[in-house]
Structure formats: C-alpha cells, structure tokens
Amino acid sequence: MLSTPAPEKSTPEWTENLNMSFICKDCKEVPPNLVEEFSSGDVVCGSCGLVLGDRIVDTRSEWRTFSNDDQGTDDPSRVGDGANPLLNGSQLQTTIAFGDGNARSRELHRAQGKSTSDKATKGLLAAYKEIGAHCDAVNIPKNVSDTAKHLFKLVDDAKAFKGKSQEAIIAGCIFIACRQCNVPRTFREVYALTKVSKKDIGRTFKALEKFFAQDSEGKIATASASGAMLPATDKYQTTTSTNAKDLCTRYCSQLGLKSAQYVKVSAGLAEKMSTVGDLAGRSPLSVAAACIYMASYLLGNGKGKSAKEISIVAGVSDGTIRTAYKFLYADREKLIEPEWIADGKGNMANLPTS
C-alpha cells in the first residue's frame, strides 16, 4: 500500500509592508517609546528625550472650568447645546428618558417630570408647537415662524392680554410676523388657518401692534440712556396695510403664471390702480385678482386665466373680479405701459370687455 505524500505548505505571497511607523530617528526602537505631552503640545521619545513633533491637538475631554474666576459666574466650558432665546431659565435641566418602557423607567420618568415641572415653559412650548404647525400647514417660511414665536414670548413675558384667547394672540402674532417679513397674509387667510374669526384677529392685531410699539419705545429709551446697543429683535417697526402689489406675486405663482412678465405687469397695474378713482377704496384682494385677470389676457395671446380660476386662489367671487376689471378696462389706455406689450409681448386687442 502506497502512502500518500504530505501536502506541500503553500508559502504566502510576498507583499510590501506599506504601514508607516512613527519611531525615534536616534533610538530606532520598535515598538517606539513615545510620550505625548499635552501640556506643551509635544511628542517626546521616552528613551532619549528627543522632541519628535509639536503642536499636537489635545483630544481629551474638557473637564476644566474657570467659572469661579469670571465675573457673573459665567461658565465658559464648551459643553452642551446653546441656550434657546425663546425659552426662560438656564435650560440645563437633566431629562430622564422613558427608556425601554419597563415599570422602573416609567416611575423615574414620571417622578422627574413632577419635580421639574415648569408650567410657564410648558405653556410656551405648547404655543410654539401650535405656531410651527400653522406655519408649516401653508408653507410659511421659517423666519416668519421664528418671528411669530418671538412676538408671542414678548406678550407672555409682559403678562399682557390676560383673559384673551391664546388662539387669538397666536393668530395675531402670525399675522404681524408675515407683514414684518414681507410675506403678508390677509385676515381671511389667517382665519382659514387658525379658525379664529376675522373680527377677533382684527381686534387682537390692533392691540398687539400698540403693545409692541410701546414696548419697543421703552427699550430704545432705556438703551439710549445707558449707552447700550439694542438688539435688532427688540426694534419693532409698525406694519403697513397689505396692498394689492404684494399679493400679485404669490397669486401668480399659485395660478401657474411662472413668467416674470406676468408678475411685472400685474404688479404694475396694481401700483397704478390709485389713478382709477373707482378702485381706490376696494379690497386689495379684488384689485390684485382683477390686475392678474387683465395681465393674463394681455400677455396670453387670448388664453388667459378665467375669473373662476382666479377667484379660487384670491378668495373673492368671480363677479367681484369682473366688476373690478371693468374699471381697469375702461382706463386701459392710461394703465398699460407701451413697453409691456412692445415687440409682440402682448396685445390690447386680446383683452375681453368683461
């Protein structure tokens, strides 16, 4: 019986060692005996004392603090999240998580909630959540939401408007914030958003406008007397009423009139509508809708937006739009600039009579 030969051991294929090692060039010890001295920022050979590197970064935790040496006992340690200016207090509380949901975790979570319950902060958070939900529902920019929250906090800190509905105050703050950020909304739009009646929104808006103006004047007087700089958030600028020109851009976008020429013509008509005496006292909603109605036919080669389509976006009846348009059509020669229809951009013959 022949014995089977033993299998030959396969030798591993030679490869070049590309690993880079940091060793002392004098001692050349392997493994190297290196010491990182974070106090001086140097890497030193522990055997011969040769300095091999400088300006190393200390990656250890920053446990040291110098709060006792600073005025006002401010802690300069860079630990934790930044303070939220929309909330009160130091905001350094520890929150116990719900955990995996067992009985012990629930008890700890409930006990911690009772011991640190702050009704004022909870009320602010609930109001901020409601403001954010309202703004997100109609795609209002974040800066408007932040402005509305800041205005609500001013009211809450001053303990003003006690007894008034919080929903009405929130609606008023959103309405003012939209005007402050140059994205105005009408009372009708805010009513559809918050379900607060237009009469309540109007009353609250006037009261809030007066309160913010007085509060800003007081802060400016105090700052000027002490020579301090007043933050920009504390300077309140009285808002002006919404005009038809401000509404044209948004309505054109919602109607699918993406061309800048539609916006230019409709905004130009709205700006010049004061020359038409019969339209001077009309609602900016109906004026903006009538201007868009005229611009769509003037530039659309006879394929303009119908009064019904515009009425859905503007929130006014198509009969109101047609009535306002009749006054624009009567003075079309004065209102329409020649450059708007030059080079075949538009044609006045395409305008409907009603």
Describe the structure.
This protein has 354 residues and is mainly α. It has 12 helices and 3 strands; from the N terminus they run E-E-E-H-H-H-H-H-H-H-H-H-H-H-H. The protein has a 3-stranded antiparallel β-sheet with strand order 1-2-3, with no helix packed on it. Strand 2 and strand 3 form a beta hairpin. The mean pLDDT is 80.
Major sheet summary line = 3 strands, antiparallel
Mean pLDDT metric? 80
Number of helices: 12
How far from one another are the termini? 115 Å
Order of helices and strands: EEEHHHHHHHHHHHH
Structural shape: extended
Cα radius of gyration in angstroms: 35 Å
Notable characteristics:
354 residues, extended, 46% helix, three-stranded antiparallel beta sheet, mainly alpha, single chain
Summarize the helices and strands and which ones pair or pack.
Elements: E1 34-37, E2 42-45, E3 51-54, H1 103-115, H2 119-137, H3 142-157, H4 166-180, H5 187-194, H6 198-226, H7 244-254, H8 260-271, H9 284-299, H10 307-314, H11 318-330, H12 332-335
Antiparallel strand pairs: 1-2, 2-3
Helix pairs in contact: 2-3, 2-4, 3-4, 4-5, 4-6, 7-8, 7-9, 8-9, 9-10, 9-11, 10-11
